[in-house]
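User: I'm preparing a small set of examples for a lab meeting where we compare how different chains pack in three dimensions. I only have the primary sequence for this one, and I'd like the structure in token form so I can line it up with the others. Please keep the answer compact; I'll paste it straight into my notes.
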Amino acid sequence: MLQDREAWKRRFGRSRGVAFLAGCATLLRAQRRLRLHIEVGDTVRDVQTLTLILGNNRLQLERLGAEPPDTLAGTPGHGSMAALMLKPIGTWAMLRLLLHGALGRLGEAAGIESFEFHHLVVRPRLSPEGREITVAYDGEVVRLRSPIDILVLDRPLYLLQTV
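Assistant: Understood. Below is the structure token output for the 163-residue chain.
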């Protein structure tokens, strides 16, 4: 999705509207399914998803209406992280999903699965161990080696701003 967004920006300029339209266009066309092996604690699952989104910004999750069920100590941004998986769905279901997201009720939409975690390991099911895969990290597209191991640290990372 980010690669498509960047192509749209080069063609039509940089704005929220262009980013939104690029995202909608990407979501509405035929999507490649990701086949992932996911480990969350003692739970191991093989899933098919259109995308896996990880985050810890509680305010953004609340605005989308996509907070995961509270199953762990802490909340996203304060001790845990959230994962959202988009199940493979058709075009009409995708349109309904986009509407739910625009109205801040993404968690109510069919086709979204959310959960929280402290430790998550993600492996593409059809790729050999150690192979690089393309991921988006803080809005930047990068290549990372599989498996991708995400761990919420016990203590926050403090940042200082100098002026």
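A couple of notes for your slides: DSSP finds four helices and ten strands in the chain. Residues 31-151 form a domain with the Tumour Suppressor Smad4 fold (CATH 2.60.200.40).

User: Perfect, thanks.
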